[in-house]
Amino acid sequence: MSAPAHAAASSDKPLAAFKGVGKTYPNGVTALEHLDFSIGRGEFLALLGPSGCGKSTALRLLAGLTGPTKGEIVRHSAGSHDVGFVFQEPTLMPWATVAQNVRLPLRLKNIEYQESRVQEALALVGLDDFRDAYPRELSGGMKMRVSIARALVTKPQLLLMDEPFAALDEISRFRLNDDLLALWRQLNCTVVFVTHSVFESVYLASRILMFTPRPGRVAAEFEIKAPEPRDGQFRTSPEYGAQCREISAALANVMADA
Amino acid sequence: MRAASHISFGERVLRLFMPIVALAIAIGLWEAVVRYYELPPYILPSPTLVFETLKSDWGTLSESLLVTLRTTAIALLLAVIGGVLLALLFASSRLVELSLFPFAVILQVTPIIAIAPLLLIYLEPQTAVLVCAWIVAFFPILSNTALGLASVDRNLQELFQLYGANRWKTLFLLRVPAALPYFLGGLRIAGGLALIGAVVAEIAAGTGGRGSGLAYRIVESGYRLNVPRMFAALLLISLAGIAIFALLTLIQHLTLRRWHESALDRES
Ligand SMILES: Nc1ncnc2c1ncn2[C@@H]1O[C@H](COP(=O)(O)OP(=O)(O)OP(=O)(O)O)[C@@H](O)[C@H]1O
Ligand SMILES: [Mg+2]
C-alpha cells in the first residue's frame, strides 16, 4: 500500500462506534436495544426504519445530547467537537430573523461573524430573499431549509440530519439532495442522515442501516454501489431501481416480523 | 407580506361605538332617575353633578390622582425589578427556588387588606402604601417570568448545548427572549394589581394617615357625606386603571408584534 500511514490509520479508526447501546427513557419506553454499528470517516450513512424505532434517539445519542442507559458510544473525533445538527422540527428562535437564526452557531462558538458565510448558507437553501423575515412568516418547508442553512454555516465535520427534507416538495428535495451530495464531497465531512424514504436513502447514502421496530437495533446493512459523482442519471438507472427494490423488500420483511 | 386585518370597517365602527352607546344610555337613565325621584346628592348624585364636582374640585383631585399614579408607577417598577431578579435567581438555582417560592406564594395568597394595618404600624403611611402595592404587583411578574424562563423549547436548548453555549449566552440569547411574552403578560396583570394595592392600602390608612391619594379622598369625602366627590374620585381611579391597562397592552403589542403568535393579526 502506498497510502500515507496517517491516512490509513484514520480510515481504519471509525469516527464513532455504538457498542451494545440501549436507551430507556425515564417514562419506561425502551427506544433502542443492543445497538451496534460504527460510522466511518467521510461516509454518508443513512438510518432507515419505521416511525418510532429510535432513529432520532440514535442521532441525539451520537451528538451527545443525551446519554445511553446501556453500553457505550466511543468517539474518535479529531479536535473540537464540530457537529451540525438538523432536528426533525425546524427548531428556530421565533424572535429572531432568518439571518439571525442562521448566524446563531457562529455566535455561540465565538466564531467571528462573517456575513458572507450566512449569505452563502442561505443561498444554498434558496432563501437569500428571506433573510429579514421572521420564522412565523415562512412555510413549513422554508423553516426547515433555514434549519439546514444553520447547520451548514459552521461547515461542520460531522453533519447529523433528522429527516431534513420530509416537508419539502419533490423538486426542492431533489435539488437539495444534489446540493447535499456536492457539499459532502466538497467539505469532505461525514453525514448521518435519518429518513423514511428508501428512494432518498439509496440516492444519497454510501451505506444504509435498517432499524427494526422499537426497540430499535440494526436489522440489516447495505452498501450502495453507485457511480461517482451521483446525479440525476443515477436516479433513473437500473442499478438504482434494483437497489431500491432490494431494500424496500427488506424493509417490508423487517416490518412484517414485528 | 403581513396579512391585512380582515375586520371590516362596519365591524370596527360597531365595536367602537356600541360600548359608547351603551354607556351613554346608562348615564342618561341614571340622570333621569335622579331627576324624576328628586334624589338628594348624598343618596345618589346625578352624573352632571359628579362631572361638575370633578371640575370644581379638580385642584385637589388631580393632586390626589398624581399621588396614586406615582405610588402605582413606583410600586410597579420595583415589582418588575424584584420579580425579574428573583425569577432569574430561581432559574439559576433550584435550591433558591425551592426555599423561597413558598414565601412568595404566602405573600400572594394573604389578602393585602389584612396585611396593610400591620404595615401601617411599622412604616410611614406613604411607605406602607407603596409596600402594599409592591406586594400585590410583585407576584404575577415573578411567577410569569419564572414560568417563561423555564419553558424554553427543548430542542432549542439542545441546540445551544450542542454549540457549547455558556450559561450567559444561553440566558440572554435563549431564555430571556423566550420568557419575554410571559413577562409582558405578567406585567399587564401587575399594573392593575399595583393600582388596587395602592388603593386598598390608602383606604386602610384612612384619615389616620396623612396620605393624599384618591382612595384617601374617597374615605375623607365619605366622612363628610360628600357623595358627589366620592363618585368623582372613583371615576378617576377607574380611568387610571383603564389607562394603565391600555398602556401596558400597547407596550406588549409593540414588543411582540414582529414575532409572537399573540400579536398575530387575526385572519377571517
Ligand atoms: N424524550 C422522550 N421521553 C420519552 N420517550 C421518548 C422521548 N423521545 C422519544 N421517546 C420514545 O422513544 C421511541 C423512539 O423515538 P424516536 O423519536 O427516536 O423515534 P424515530 O425513529 O425518530 O421516529 P420517527 O421516524 O417517527 O421520527 C418512541 O417510542 C418515543 O415514544
Ligand atoms: Mg424521529
Short summary of the structure?
Chain A has 258 residues and is α/β, with parallel strands linked by helices. Chain A has helices at 5-12, 55-63, 98-108, 115-124, 140-152, 170-187, 198-204, 232-235, 238-257; strands spanning 16-24, 30-39, 44-48, 70-75, 83-86, 158-162, 190-195, 207-211, 218-223. Chain A has 9 helices and 9 strands.
Structure overview:
The complex is a heterodimer of chains A (258) and B (268). By secondary structure, chain A is of the alpha/beta class. Chain A is globular. Helix content of chain A is 39%, strand content 22%. Chain A has a single domain, classed as P-loop containing nucleotide triphosphate hydrolases (Rossmann fold, 3-Layer(aba) Sandwich), CATH 3.40.50. A 6-stranded mixed β-sheet of chain A has the order 5-6-7-3-8-9, with helices on both faces. By secondary structure, chain B is mainly α. Helix content of chain B is 80%, strand content 0%. Chain B is built from 10 helices and no strands. The longest helix of chain B is centred in the last third of the chain and has 39 residues. The mean pLDDT of chain B is 90. The complex binds adenosine-5'-triphosphate (ATP) and magnesium ion. The site of adenosine-5'-triphosphate has 13 residues of chain A, from α2.
